[in-house]
Amino acid sequence: MGFLKVLAILVLCAHSTLAIWTLKYMATKYIPSDYINNNERQYQYDQGAANSVAYDPTASYAYVAGNKFVQVVDYSRFIAPNIVHKEKTASQATDIAHCGYIVAWVTRGAKITDPGTLHVWDKYRRNTKRWNNICTGPVGSDPISIKFFDNCQTIVVANKGSAALDPGTGSFIDPEGTISIVRIKKNRQQMQQQRQQPGRGNPNFQGGNNPNNPNFQGGNPNFQGGNNPNFQGGNTPNNPNFQGGNNPNNPNFQGGNNPNFQGGNTPNNPNFQGGNNPNFQGGNPNFQGGNNPTFQPGNNPNFQGGNTPNNPNFQGGNNPNFQGGNNPNFQGGNNPTFQGGNNPTFQGGNQGFPGAGGNPNFPGAGGNPNFPGAGGNPNFPGAGGRPNFPGRRTNFPTTQGTCATQFGHRMTITTVDFRSYNTRTNMPSLYGVRMPYDGSLNANSPRTLSKSLEPSSISEHPSRPDLAVVSLTPNNAVVQITLTEGYEGVSSFSAVGLKPWYNYSLDASSTPAGISFNRGYNIYSLRQPSAIEPFVMRTRWGTEQFLFTADEGATTKYGGGQGDPPRFSDAVPYSRLRQLPQYLPANYSSPRELGQLEMSRVDGLRNPANPNSGYDYVNFFGGRGISMFRFLNDSNLALAWDSQDQIARGVAETFPMVHNSRSFTPDAQSHGPKSQRDLASTQLGAQCKSLAVANVDRDTTLVFVGADGPSVIGIFSVSSNGSFPNFESVYRKSPVPGTFSQLLSQKQMGDIDPAKLVFIPRSATPDKFNYLLVMGKKSGTLSMYRILRESRRNMLNRLRKEASSATSVKRSVSAILFSLIVAAVTYLF
Length: 829
Ligand SMILES: *[C@@H]1O[C@H](CO)[C@@H](O)[C@H](O)[C@H]1NC(C)=O
Ligand SMILES: *[C@@H]1O[C@H](CO)[C@@H](O)[C@H](O)[C@H]1NC(C)=O
Ligand SMILES: *[C@@H]1O[C@H](CO)[C@@H](O)[C@H](O)[C@H]1NC(C)=O
Ligand SMILES: *[C@@H]1O[C@H](CO)[C@@H](O)[C@H](O)[C@H]1NC(C)=O
Hints:
This protein is mostly beta strands and 829 residues long. It has a domain at 1-31 and 643-829. The protein is built from 7 helices and 43 strands. The protein has a 5-stranded antiparallel sheet with strand order 8-9-10-11-20, with no helix packed on it. Strands 12-13-16-21-19 form a 5-stranded antiparallel sheet. It has a 4-stranded antiparallel sheet with strand order 1-43-42-41. The chain is globular. 49% of the residues are buried. One 2-acetamido-2-deoxy-beta-D-glucopyranose (NAG) binds at residues 585, 587, 590, 592-593.
């Protein structure tokens, strides 16, 4: 090989190693927080326009949950989205999710300590503009997040049970933290009636008379379309709305991937052939469901389940012949003849016993210094017994929801609480699970573990569809919950441990203003994860299962009105901690070092029962990054990787003007992202709170993390060669000078407080690029970013251009004129 050739290859290699994953801004939709006077849209900073978002890629709708409305944003013009519907809510909607034909959200009670409500709706319909409530039911107090399980038939709700002073009486109320397991079922009686009276009970059914298909038998007693509120019927000139498998108006109708389904004639679906199929029978007993997540095998004796590669949640239903076959997630379900042998991950219900051993409160004692509280023998079989050992039924209270009769659903709500652990707080598996509140505000009832636990975010377990994983943010732990009907309950607790900062850079100083990282602090932080996401790493050597955590941090503060100090707080500035360990230098109390950093006063005590006993070690709140935990064979967790200081340093390098900026301000008219710079240094820093795990390439998975404060998106890549995540870049729409209020009225905001991230894969986008949808909670924005790979130098050039064009739009008169024209054009739409 010639010298030049070698050189060229070397240059190519150098170039490709410089390429990094980043984002490119495409469009932002500003969501009104309210509508005043004559339906005029009102945009306000941090007024709950967007608390959460769910995206339905098949119908191209985003559903935005806010304090006053749930709003539907139409993304069929992908970079020119449009709000097409608003639904008033009785109180603030905190989270929203979409699955199959259902959209569901949770609202708080009138007071935060009151029970909340789960709302289950069908999907908004583009052509009829109809949107129907299917069921409503009570959940626990302060519901904060929801997630679908079990093929869209189970909804898990995390109810924080936040404590508060009652504004009326001034008394302190501390509700239980709970998990609601909500099951949405088809009403069997209704199904029977529908069989006898085809079409009745389904007001949207439109099919039936196809003159081209003499064999069409819509009234076939096996036909099940009546259970699908979005089903729109046959391929007939009498039904002008029907458009087949690719019908954008009927996203639940999917038949197209089913090799046996032959369908109708439609110009929009070249593969759809039904009108010419003399055998099409509507209720065809050979129909196999394809990739329709709402498909119910029901009474079809030929259905085999194993042929639904696109529906990993499918569980076989009531089919006695189903054998699990090709579905690695299948867990036996209701099938009495199931034999388990074909399922490599099937575990027969043995959940093992979470790890014990070591002193969880003392970091570094034996084993892994990064993971106090675990270690020991993960397979230890059961000191203290397992309250929910599989095989023993549980008996948590179950209530009924209220369902609209015409859709034929039934809703049950089982509420799992943690009260049975209150007398067993010495259980080894509870080591390291924090109870920050000391009980001082309520003389009548002492603090309890169950009230201290605050369920926060929910994820699926990477291989066990019968388990939900729920973060307990203030408690510095996650809990795994068994969802199996009749066996609901806690499967295991896992403390997520402390992060040692000795080897990482930390800017926790309040002065001088600006960037001042130091290393060598011999202190720890509580990770306190909020968002969590499962991840399966498939390498040449097999699969490993992980949980990513966004280590947001949370202080616990109760009482105290506007401007008053709280009546309880677990946080104090470092300079106020007394009896510190000898190994911490005295000058750490300087504001140039840690002096104003919010520290925990309840963790690291020499004697945990005595607040004046002095400290063995000290902790602040939040990891200012993300972590990755490995699921051990028994489902317990062990720390595998931590992002260290990479996000904070990435912000300081790429967006120094918003380094440790604080997004919270009581005065959005006077403060903006730049003037708030450095104010979060003594609080939660780069406050990592949202996650999206995105498979962008055959070999590459990206982990996106939204960090409040600087309001950046951090990007890490994981390759399937088995190596740990690699930091790629941080991205933020270019920061522009101005107050939050000004930036909002100029629509120059960026996404402030990126509290929700949604990956939209290329298969669901018009230009076949991968996208990330970012919701800015305080800015009330939904932004679409293209995911791309480019050299670091190109990225920096692009960011510079974005910044100068943003600033010039703000300054130049012609640009303002242009934006007025754009505004006028937008208004026309
Ligand atoms: C810091 O890094 C050194 C060298 O890798 C290591 O020996 C030490 O244990 C680390 N300290 C902490 C607290 O992680
Ligand atoms: C604080 O003391 C340590 C040694 O005890 C020293 O390395 C450090 O520079 C001091 N910091 C300041 C701001 O004086
Ligand atoms: C986990 O299970 C696999 C397969 O049964 C076994 O080879 C491995 O040793 C187990 N690992 C641990 C940590 O027990
Ligand atoms: C694995 O892939 C990553 C990213 O492509 C690379 O940085 C790393 O060196 C690879 N590791 C090994 C052991 O091949």
